[in-house]
Amino acid sequence: MAPAALSGFATSPLPEPHSEIPMAIAEARRRNPEATKASILRAAERCFVEHGFAGTSMADIARRARVTKSLIHHHFGSKEELWNEVKKSRISHYAEVQRQLMAEADSGERALRGSIEVLFNFLRDNPEYVRLNTWMNLEDPKLSTMHYPDLVTVGVERVREEQQAGRIRRDLDPRSLIVAMISLCTYWFTAKKTGLAHLVPTGDSDEQHLDAIVKVLLEGVLTRSAREAPQTG
Prior knowledge:
Structural class: mainly alpha
Number of domains: 2
CATH topology of the largest domain: Tetracycline Repressor, domain 2
CATH architecture of the largest domain: Orthogonal Bundle
Mean pLDDT: 81
């Protein structure tokens, strides 16, 4: 017969991961909910980056963040909402920089070149987002819900303005142009670790690829008059 202390173990509900958080940590988190949310977001991002959405459980996130699952639900509601917050936290600053660029660039050439460079540098500096993006492509399409859809709208409107001004070819669909730009930048960081990097000559392969993207798009997108116009500033 099992000892009395263990007799009810098999039928008792299992505790949540880290449900017995040290008192000092629990008290600090009660007093600073924003710090707690930030800690959960960091833990969730690491789990999602390493294992994807389907391969991550709320228990995994709770364990890494050293909080209870109920606290995660309190702050974020569901795993889907937490996934979206992780993506949003990564891309918010990038989105603001792109908006500012579209508003301030004084020519189609500067707007296009600047937008490519901002996106490329964001992906280079945020490998975690690149990996999240790869998981999104592999898993449920619903995970790819776009944040800041207005950013695409701003880009489309700017392309149309440049087309009307005769600086960008009018036979190009603005949305297709934006998709092409995103694809050229994103695929490099998704695939270069699988064997593409050796195709690039020695040196700074990232910078060489960025230069190639800019040249291909500018030559193919800008009208001849825009390409030949002298650049000021």
